[in-house]
């Protein structure tokens, strides 16, 4: 079967399934639409899994860590050495994402930490996969953050991590990251991909003051100007792979690779905050099937997140699915918001799969009670 024939078959399957899932939702013992966005979330999961009885039985948070050369320009409130310290904390189970995942998901969710390029030497840690591309990226204010080969290698690291999760039988792949100065990289990626101003994309990250924020914006603006020609294709449009290469980070490229692998395998992809969203935006521009599997966990307090979410609508994602599940003013990263959202995915799937229908419960419908 050719690719075009397969697409036509899948389209017919999806059309028939859409009708069945909508019918199933409307026939649950509730007024139509009364469970609000939970119904749309259940529909989303059902369409990703291509079943009227979706399930979320196992999830994995993929936590990618790497350092950024641009940190030497003083764009963060913390020194680069903090990345390695936080990886060790996560490996010991003391990071926010570790605690929150245990609290809300218990035994049905786990975390895999992947070192894609932490600059400091990390000791061998039982809970950390070493997949280092290099000792952090280069300073993209002066040269490309990485070579094309390094970007491909980092994306492969993410794809392999996603495949390990798929082989373990997960239903949800959640993305998280660690890396001092990665909001600078994510903002540069967002502006390069969307054309939005640095004032719209660059936020306070780890909590920088006004003076440092202005400096951070100037660093991103200068970097975008330096790499503009390289990041633009022959149609004068952004080249997402080139953008990741020039101003991305190893963990951003890895998350993009993981997103593409999740889309290929039709696994629900739970996207955390601003940095993860920027990486997945690049992935969606490389592989449009990513748009079919993403669920946004929370709306970050970081300035550029709403701008990034709007770009998915431009790419063709229905607006309702560019709406994050939670709004808690989080801006930590790590996958912490994704961890908090995991129970909502499980609840939505259970609602569609297990909730009684009017017929099965012998309950009169609204029109039958008149």
Ranges where pLDDT stays below 50 over 5 or more residues in a row are: none
SS summary, helix count: 14
**Biggest sheet: strands side by side, in what order?**
3-2-1-4-5-6
- Main beta sheet: 6 strands, parallel
Class by SSE composition: alpha/beta
Q: Tally of extended strands?
A: 6
What is the average per-residue confidence, as pLDDT, rounded to a whole number? 93
Strand content: 5-15%
The CA-CA distance between the termini, in Å, is 53 Å
Percent in helix? 40-55%
Overall shape:
globular
* Gyration radius, in Å: 21 Å
Could you explain the architecture of this structure?
With 370 residues, the protein is α/β, with parallel strands linked by helices. It has helices at residues 3-26, 37-49, 82-91, 96-105, 148-167, 182-194, 198-201, 210-231, 240-247, 250-264, 274-286, 305-315, 336-354, 358-361, and strands at residues 59-66, 109-117, 128-130, 172-178, 268-271, 294-296. α11 links the parallel β5 and β6 (294-296).
How would you summarize the topology of this molecule?
Layout: H1 3-26, H2 37-49, E1 59-66, H3 82-91, H4 96-105, E2 109-117, E3 128-130, H5 148-167, E4 172-178, H6 182-194, H7 198-201, H8 210-231, H9 240-247, H10 250-264, E5 268-271, H11 274-286, E6 294-296, H12 305-315, H13 336-354, H14 358-361
Parallel strand pairs: 1-2, 1-4, 2-3, 4-5, 5-6
Helix pairs in contact: 1-2, 2-13, 4-13, 5-10, 6-8, 6-9, 6-11, 8-9, 9-11, 10-11, 11-12
